[in-house]
Design a protein that fits this description.
This protein is of the alpha/beta class. The protein folds into two domains: about 1-235, Ribonuclease Inhibitor (Leucine-rich repeat, LRR (right-handed beta-alpha superhelix), Alpha-Beta Horseshoe); about 245-355, no CATH class. It has five helices and 14 strands. The strands form three sheets. Strands 1-2-3-4-5-6-7-8-9-10 form a ten-stranded parallel sheet, with no helix packed on it. A two-stranded antiparallel ribbon has the order 11-12. The longest helix has 12 residues, at about 340-350. Mean pLDDT is about 85; it is low at about 10-15 and about 330-355.
């Protein structure tokens, strides 16, 4: 995952004579000696200083490609920064920036490819960020963001989206339109569910969801070709060590089960329409060794299934009775003699929600 999350520069200018490193220098502003050669500087590092306010003179660095202002005391982004139309990378993590600190026309920095605002005081997702159409990596971790906007879909070139350590409670369906996304970090939030549109992210390799409130996952998630997946510390995982409750079947259900299991024939003249509809709602027990059915009375059971050959995920399935747990079941038979009923049961098992 480190390769996905690194925002270290890989550009050639970082090691050239056009790079200026003034980090860890106790600076409170831009050094005067840099101004005369401002047009020559392509990479400027002023991280880990004492800068409270970036001066308007930042605008003279017109050819700047990379600017690092991380770990300062910034509370405001000056409008002069917008004039840096060549800027590809802006790092301002670990400052005191809020949404009000960002210029309204920040979206004009259309050349930006990497943007890091992690560890600041953002309470909302800045709408200006969704106007950065060339953005490839966006880091907003460790803020106070409670909602992800639907306009996130505008970032069509985005490859890495880091929103860990915020206050998100849900993920918009539009996340599935970020077709180039390879890394999605949503850990340490309050997210309760993940949209099924996630299956559209065919390039997604790393998905981090740990430390949330997720109790279910869409079944589509098992079709993702992930190489990294984190689910720890979610109700999804915790609930499977608890005993599941089972409501005994009613007389109506018992009668319906007998009719379906014994294949008792009936016509529309034999039963009223509400009973015929009820009988039609019967569900097969997922254990292929059991011939039982259920209507509303069922027992929840957990099976751990292989996922991408790397993980074992809990799969919630439904059985017709507690005794069915003791019946041997083969859910993925390789035998050529597997019955049609077993194939139906297996197909149904794959459609049941995870968790």
């Amino acid at each position: 995952m480190a390769d996905y999350l690194s925002d270290a520069s890989s550009d050639s200018e970082s090691n050239s004579r056009n790079s200026e490193d003034s980090s860890y220098s106790n600076l409170s502003t831009i050094p005067d000696n840099l101004i005369p050669r401002a047009k020559e500087i392509l990479s400027l590092k002023m991280n880990h200083n004492e800068i409270l306010l970036l001066p308007p003179s930042i605008s003279v660095f017109v050819n700047l490609l990379s600017l690092d202002l991380s770990n300062n005391h910034l509370t405001h982004i000056p409008k002069e920064l917008i004039s840096l139309r060549c800027l590809r990378k802006l790092l301002v993590k670990s400052n005191g920036l809020s949404c009000a600190s960002i210029p309204k026309d920040f979206g004009l920095l259309s050349s930006l490819e990497v943007l890091n605002f992690s560890g600041n005081s953002l309470e909302t997702f800045p709408p200006q960020f969704t106007e950065l159409s060339n953005l490839r990596r966006l880091y907003l971790g460790g803020n106070c963001i409670s909602e992800m906007p639907n306009s996130i879909k505008n970032l069509q070139r985005l490859e890495v989206l880091y929103l860990g350590g915020n206050r998100l409670t849900e993920v918009p369906a539009e996340i599935g339109q970020l077709y180039n996304l390879s890394c999605l970090i949503l850990c340490d939030n309050q997210i309760q569910s993940i949209p099924p549109t996630l299956i559209q992210l065919r390039k997604l390799q790393s998905l981090s969801l740990h430390n949330n409130q997720i109790s279910t996952l869409p079944p589509e998630i098992v079709r993702l070709n992930l190489s990294e997946l984190s689910l720890r510390n979610n109700p999804l995982v915790n609930k499977f060590v608890q005993d599941m409750t089972y409501e005994p079947p009613t007389l109506l259900e018992l009668s319906g089960r007998v009719i379906k299991i014994e294949k008792v024939k009936y016509t529309k003249n034999d039963l009223p329409s509400n009973l015929r509809k009820y009988l039609a709602s019967a569900q097969r027990c997922v254990n292929p060794k059991c011939k039982g059915v259920y209507f509303t009375s069922r027992i929840e059971h957990v099976k751990f299934v292989d996922f991408c050959g790397k993980y074992r995920l809990p799969l919630l399935q439904y059985l017709c009775s507690p005794q069915c747990r003791t019946i041997p079941a083969v859910y993925h038979s390789s035998s050529d003699t597997e019955t049609d009923e077993e194939e139906v049961a297996n197909a149904k098992l794959r459609r049941v929600l995870l968790g």
